[in-house]
Amino acid sequence: MNSIMESIQSNRVWFCLDCGKCSSVCPITRHMVDGYSSPRLLVETAIGNGEDEILEDPLLWTCLTCKRCSEICPSVVHFSEFIQDVRELARGQNHSGECTHSGMIQTWSRMMVDPEMRQNRLGWVEEGLRVSTESDTLYFVGCLPYYDAAFEKLNIEGVSIANAALKILNHLGIEPVVLEDERCCGHDQFWQGDMDTFRGLAEVNLGNIMDTEAKRIITTCPECAWTLKHTYPDTIGDSGMEVLHLTELLAESDLSGIIPGNQDSSIQKVTYQDPCRLGRYSGVYEAPRDLIMGLGYEIREMDHNRKASLCCGTSCWSSCGQVNKKNQVERLREAKSTGADLLITACQKCQIHLKCAQSGPVLEGELQIDIRDLTTLIADHL
């Protein structure tokens, strides 16, 4: 993107009606404490004042790009895409958001850009699970092994999700290719506007993917699924392969006789967190729910679900502060209020962020509810 005006044009920003509906649902605007902005006000600044002032808008780097505003916008303004464009332009002027976790995650992503770098990417595969070098299915793991190490104290499901995915695929008779030198998909770098890092990661990944004989890519990360299916073809190149989140594959499969019903009588009622990239971006709402009910659980929906679901509260590992924690606390309280015994999600980042909020010392007791990834839950029932 070469200019603010080009982005305004391509993302329908001119069509903003100044109605303020976006302000009422924006998870950042609702809890802002330092300064005030909203999607509507940022658009007004962009149109009226141009590039210099928009770079100082407090929403530019705190926006979650969760698409909640776009779902309710009567003019179909592509606000998340506009934010990505402006962030890319801002980086050209040495502006950037505040990295979380001391920039650790951005650092390992930049390291992976080096095509000569070699990793032990298959060391996590459990004995007895089967992978192949020749298969029509490729399992794209994403950053699960790295998250396992980075967030060990939160007791998250990282590598266990990857092994659960292999277990499920093997039960379906699939021995997938797993790339020996896979890199981060680049989702976070793209949405932060760091296009140099994104392109470096995407080019290495696309080359490795094209070297396989696969015809479809399966992933357990909604962000990887969106990036491989849409962002790569739009910016780098198209693999020509079908890309599916694991829940989409399982929804298409006949699981009768493979997955028995609920074997844990202590857990009957569950609730489900819709990940932004799987839900509002990809439109996958019912497949995870059908799988959960197929396991024999009763789903207790939170007040905000499906298109109206609340984001887990942090995006792209940047600008995570008081406002984000308020969003996470709000979501956990919604989950608790359903009376569910378990909160299920289909995105490892949702689990990381919500478990992080649970670990806070002030509200720790109030927010406790078990959190599981749908992939590991299904694997437990096999």
Question: What's a quick, concise take on this entry?
Answer:
The protein has 382 residues and is of the alpha/beta class. The protein contains 19 helices and seven strands.
Structure characterization notes:
The mean pLDDT is about 85. The protein has helices spanning about 5-10, 20-25, 40-50, 50-55, 60, 70, 80-90, 105-110, 145-150, 160-170, 185-190, 195-210, 220-235, 245-250, 275-280, 285-295, 320-335, 350-360, 375-380; strands at about 135-140, 215-220, 240-245, 270-275, 300, 340-345, 370-375. The chain folds into three domains: about 5-90, Alpha-helical ferredoxin (Fumarate Reductase Iron-sulfur Protein, Chain B, domain 2, Orthogonal Bundle); about 100-250, no CATH class; about 270-380, Rossmann fold, CATH 3.40.50. It is an alpha/beta fold. The strands form two sheets. Strands 5-4-6-7 form a four-stranded parallel β-sheet, with helices on both faces. Strands 1-2-3 form a three-stranded parallel β-sheet. About 45% of the residues lie in helices and about 5% in strands. The protein contains 19 helices and seven strands. Helix 1 (about 5-10) runs antiparallel to helix 7 (about 80-90), helix 14 packs across helix 16 (about 285-295) and helix 17 packs across helix 18 (about 350-360).
